[in-house]
Amino acid sequence: MDCLFCKIVDGSIPVSIVKQTEKVTAFNDISPQAPTHVLIIPNQHFENMGRVAEADPELAGEILKVTSAIAKDLGLESWRINANTGASAGQSVFHAHIHLMGGRTFAWPPG
Ligand code: AMP
Ligand code: ZN
């Protein structure tokens, strides 16, 4: 399978890694939409975060735990997480990921 994020996990595409565990990888988004913009992904391939939650709720929890730890490590007081699910919701890479963004204000509703 030709998956960009699987190649990031196996190291064949270099990225700026923020944190890596046995099950989860976090790296800086190549096109940041905020001063902090980190992607947190499962090392195993799933199509989106909904599929992770269905197949392995413990892994979904681990992804959220790593996300929260990174926000804390970076000293963020306010931050937003986003899991675009499906093309019309803005998903462009079909390997599950959470966007962690902080360091600016965010509008709500997001539009
Ligand atoms: P989404 O549109 O929710 O699927 O998010 C995919 C994200 O992956 C976008 O924010 C892209 O900027 C980011 N992205 C794509 N290629 C890379 C890459 N090589 N390294 C880091 N981030 C990437
Ligand atoms: Zn993948």
TrEMBL record:
One Pfam family recorded for the sequence: HIT
CDD domains found in the cross-reference section: PKCI_related
InterPro entries assigned to the protein according to its UniProt record, in alphabetical order: Histidine_triad_HIT, HIT-like, HIT-like_sf
Protein name per Swiss-Prot or TrEMBL: Unannotated protein
Organism: freshwater metagenome
GO molecular function, one term: catalytic activity
Classification of source organism: unclassified sequences, metagenomes, ecological metagenomes
Stored Gene3D superfamilies: HIT-like
HIT domain location: 4-111
Signal peptide: none
